[in-house]
Design brief:
Length: about 280
């Protein structure tokens, strides 16, 4: 099989343009014994021969692994995220924050979701696309206060779509890809945490994502040379290179529990670099 299923909370959001109606996950009667990760429904999108499921479908699959404890995965913000570094770093931060938003929704943490809504607005302003997400960010805060989680999830998804479109209109496709990458890094870190807490071969298969790393490498190489040589992007290049063999096990093999934890740790290091001041 030459298509691999991958997971990326906000990364999936920004790469997949699924209809709003598709975001509502079907109820799961009981956990399945195995997970056919290559059989996500038609809402999943194909990007560079990689299957990208919409977030609700990923959550349904993870629930089959044993109902993750999302509050333990969530990394609460102490305050609203402030822009730092250049526009590339801010774009990566925006992806990380929106990925955190989906985790906060699963954890049903209203206060954290409100913080994230305000952070989305702040970061979007720093890269010139606040107008595109202002109403979405306001709705995220409003629905979180009312604990209307389905609506919050829809608004997060639509905020990413609006940011992407606004960036394209500003001829900033490369920044849109960095938003995707930031979301993928935090989402993959979260996934590795969930799988690592209750390891199974089926869960680890969700981390088999070498083609998506290829995709992001191509996008990073399209950045201006001076940006590629910067401290942050250079670190991300190096991190992706070390993760690729961990995620690219041969067909028939399984990603080990040790490698699952290693993937999570390396993604976490890159997320921390993205959020560090002045990179």
């Amino acid at each position: 099989m030459n298509q691999r299923t991958l997971w990326a909370l906000a990364g999936a959001l920004s790469l997949a343009q699924a209809p709003v109606a598709s975001l509502k996950a079907a109820p799961v009667a009981q956990p399945a014994k195995t997970i056919a990760v290559h059989q996500f429904p038609k809402e999943a999108k194909l990007v560079d021969q990689v299957v990208v499921p919409v977030p609700s479908e990923v959550f349904a699959v993870l629930d089959k692994l044993g109902k993750p404890s999302w509050p333990e995965v969530l990394r609460p913000q102490k305050s609203m995220a402030a822009p730092t570094g250049g526009k590339e770093q801010v774009s990566l931060m925006l992806g990380v924050v929106i990925a955190e938003g989906f985790i906060a929704v699963e954890a049903e943490n209203a206060e954290e979701v409100k913080n994230i809504g305000n952070s989305v607005r702040s970061l979007a302003k720093a890269i010139g696309v606040e107008r595109a997400v202002r109403s979405r960010a306001n709705s995220i805060v409003e629905f979180a206060e009312k604990r209307r989680w389905t609506e919050v999830r829809k608004e997060l998804d639509l905020a990413l779509a609006d940011v992407r479109q606004a960036m394209i209109e500003l001829n900033s496709e490369s920044l849109a890809q960095l938003v995707s990458l930031g979301g993928w890094l935090r989402g993959t870190e979260a996934l590795a945490t969930v799988v690592g807490k209750g390891y199974s071969k089926e869960g680890a298969e969700l981390l088999h994502q070498p083609l998506l790393i290829d995709h992001f490498n191509v996008r990073l190489k399209a950045l201006p040379e001076e940006v590629q040589k910067g401290q942050l992007i250079s670190k991300i290049f190096a991190g992706l290179k070390t993760m690729q063999p961990l995620m690219g096990v041969p067909n028939g093999d399984h990603i080990s529990e040790k490698d699952v934890n290693e993937i999570g740790q390396r993604c976490g290091e890159l997320v921390a670099a993205v959020q560090a001041k002045g990179k």
